[in-house]
Amino acid sequence: MKLSYREKIILAVFIAIAILFVGFLWLVKPKTQKLNDNKLKLEDLQDQKEEIDRKIEQIKPLQEKIKKIYDDTNKITEIFIPVDEVGSPVAFDKALQHYADENNVKILSLEVDTPEVEELKYYYYEGKDIDADLREAADINGNLQQQYDDEHAEQVSLSDREVETLYQTKYGVKVNGTKEDIWNYLKAIKEYNKALLINQVNISDYSFGQDAIEELQKKGQQIVEAVAPTPEETPAEEGGEEAAATEETAPEEQAQTPAVVTPDGQEITNTSDAQIVITAYSIYKMPEPDTETIPPAAN
């Protein structure tokens, strides 16, 4: 079959269109689909980038917030004694020895119990609502119940708080001194800027020698003030030089502890032994948080 020129032109155009269509389906369309897929991925990555940028912007304020919480926590907990010091009587004695020296109190012994973990309970009065029915009957506007809830809000808040735990260590301190000196020593411990609690004080002689003197006076026994020997009266080999040094370095202490002597040689002083029980509270010190190191991503 012989085609005319015009038919050949039409056939050639048709073949060219077919080739272009097949080429589009075979080459262009997959590329177009891939391009569309890449656009979607790009949009997703851009969203991720924006999210990361927002998180990066939050890092600095978050670091500052963590640092502030850490500093505030240290200020709150600085009154607690470090855990590595509470079990040592040496460290405790070192911390409070200067109070004994300042108040002319002599520490005779110091014992320490094993540290224990105890609950730090909140102190509050838990009252019983005994007139709830009467209040409900009279409370036509709800004001009485609201007033009752407002008055007991703190009690409810404390009862709902989580009870914290911490280390506590009890120390038994035996001291000797005058009434005033022991009182000043206890006052100094009370004002010490650490978490210490004086639980118990037992004084051997609450009259600090006064009852014994009055008893002797009732019996008609003669008592005289004791006089400390001078260095000349005390031989050097018996400690005369040491006695002289004592007089020179501690005249106030000798003046604060006068004594009387009975004819039979009994010495009565205005001092007494006192057994003191002190509880020290302690916690572990929090290490400073590392806000610079980026933790590894979770698998």
Radius of gyration: 44 Å
CATH topology (level 3) name of the largest domain? Alpha-Beta Plaits
Secondary structure: helix percent:
40-55%
Q: Can you tell me the overall shape? A: elongated
Query: Helix/strand-derived class?
Result: alpha+beta
Helix and strand string, N-terminal first?
Answer: HEHHEEHHHEHEHEHHEEE
Structural domain tally: 3
Uncertain runs: 227-257
Average pLDDT works out at: 75
Quickly count the helices: 10
CATH class of the largest domain: Alpha Beta
**Main beta-sheet annotation:** 6 strands, mixed
Q: CATH H level of the largest domain: which superfamily?
A: Ribosomal protein S6/Translation elongation factor EF1B
Q: Any idea what the CATH architecture of the largest domain is?
A: 2-Layer Sandwich
Query: What is the beta-strand fraction?
Result: 15-25%
Number of strands: 9
How would you describe what is shown here?
This protein is of the alpha+beta class and 299 residues long. It has three domains: 77 residues; 158 residues, Alpha-Beta Plaits, CATH 3.30.70; 41 residues, no CATH class. The protein has ten helices and nine strands. The strands form two sheets. Strands 1, 2, 3, 4, 5 and 9 form a six-stranded mixed sheet that branches. Strands 6-7-8 form a three-stranded antiparallel sheet, with no helix packed on it. The longest helix has 73 residues. The radius of gyration is 44 Å and the shape is elongated. The chain starts with a helix and ends in a 16-residue tail after the last strand.
